[in-house]
Amino acid sequence: MSNKLDQLKVMTDVVADTGDIEAIKRFAPLDATTNPSLLLKAAALPHYANLLDQAKQWATAQGGSNAEQLANCCDHFAVDVGKEILAIIPGRISTEVDARLSFDTAGTIERARKLIGMYEQAGLTRDRILIKTASTWEGIQAAKELEKENINCNLTLLFGFSQAAACADAGAFLISPFVGRILDWYKANTDLVMNSPKDDPGVQSVERIYQYYKNNDYKTVVMGASFRNTGEIEALAGCDRLTISPALMEELEADTGDLPRSLSPDSIDSSDERNPPNEAEFRYALNDDAMATEKLAEGIRNFVADQIKLEQLISSR
Q1: Does residue 132 carry a catalytic annotation?
Q2: DSSP string covering 22-74, please?
Q3: How many angstroms separate the CA atoms of 115 and 119, rounded?
Q4: 200-245, pLDDT tens digit by residue?
Q5: Phi then psi for 255, rounded to 5 degrees?
Q6: From 4, 56, 132, 295, the catalytic residue
């Protein structure tokens, strides 16, 4: 019998949640995702030392203030990492806009166009790139405009149903609901008891979003992310896409048990009718969901912190 990773790939597009080239080569995912935290880890690998130096030299040659040079250097490094990954995967790479722009629609659009331009200058077409931005109201509105320019977007740091509804209404190509971080919040703030992975609130969140999208004919791709264990992954087998860390892919690869399909567009049971929120409704719903509010804010802060660490690492070279 094939292992669970191979079984999963039959029903779900598997995406590598890493910038580690060797891990990507080993597990042969369709797509790959990066973010400031993963780029910071990648920057510490010997493999990427030359790319960092090249990015810094390029940014210095562009001139500008120290802040502008750092931004250019980080963007160049992100694109260079993306280029290396695209050379070994058949699908797309997700590259994230600076998280400090999470509440700046115009700034997000400008930075997204810049990143796409850098990829295109390197000979890569935009149909192989996903631009990542946080699922804030501003980020979602940026994605709405970018999708009109055929710049496909990955709306990340998604924790609440109102975020998912707004992303679909905006025509976002893909969303990344964070399964494990939802579970983290419920473990820390409630008396949660789980008898099976199906009781995991992060799993339940993705199931609801998946059902809502399929029931209402939304084309936005649902990609579960941020997993804490293989049980969460198995409970979402059949989801459009799942982005998985190398450690959890290794666990799935080592398991030769049967992996039944949990989600399918042919078996939809959703009571959620199409009801996209306007800005006021979105902000109220997000505010009313303590978990989503807290995890979104924490996620943005953590990405910004790792972006600053990456800039400090570059400055010290």
Answers
A1: yes
A2: HHHHHH--SEEE--HHHHHHHHTSGGGHHHHHHHHHHHHHH---HHHHHHHHH
A3: 6
A4: 999 999 999 999 999 999 999 999 999 999 999 999 999 999 999 9
A5: -100, 120
A6: 132
Give Cα separations from 236 to 3, 10, 86, 251 (angstroms): 17, 13, 26, 16
37 Cβ contact partners less than 8 Å away, ≥ 6 residues apart: 302, 303, 306
3-class secondary-structure state, position 107: helix
Domains of the chain: 4-315 (3.20.20.70)
First to last CA, the chain: 50
DSSP state of 198: G
Q: What is the pLDDT of residue 53?
A: 87
pLDDT digits (tens, 9 = 90+) for 69-107: 889 999 999 999 999 999 999 999 999 999 999 999 999
pLDDT at residue number 1: 66
Examine the pLDDT at 317 and tell me if it is beyond 90.
no
Is residue 147 within 8 A of residue 139, CB to CB? The reply is: no
